[in-house]
Amino acid sequence: MTVTSYIFGIASALLILVVVIEMLRRHLLRERHAIWWFIAGVMALIAGIFPSTLEWAADVIGIEVPINLVFFVSITILFFVCLQASAELTKLEARTRTLAERVALIEMELASKSGNSEGR
Q: Count of CB atoms within 10 A of residue 119's CB?
């Protein structure tokens, strides 16, 4: 590993963590959505500072090329992010449908009351 790639790995991990923390601070990202990004940033920082941990983890799991472990972990984290986003989307869709139905019922009730009062 060259010094440039070592510095680039640490700087990239720090950038990820700074962006996640800044988005949390500005309320652009909620805590429950930031957890997987934060985990990814911390793991990238650990692997960037201590590259031998990546080789050790790859040996423990039985992966010959350590970079394949990085790709596997990245895909796994992205899978969880997508799964969490899908769950949130499903929940929001159900709430939107319920609210639309309630508004329609209220509008029908108001229309029937205004129709009754106009007829008198």
A: 6
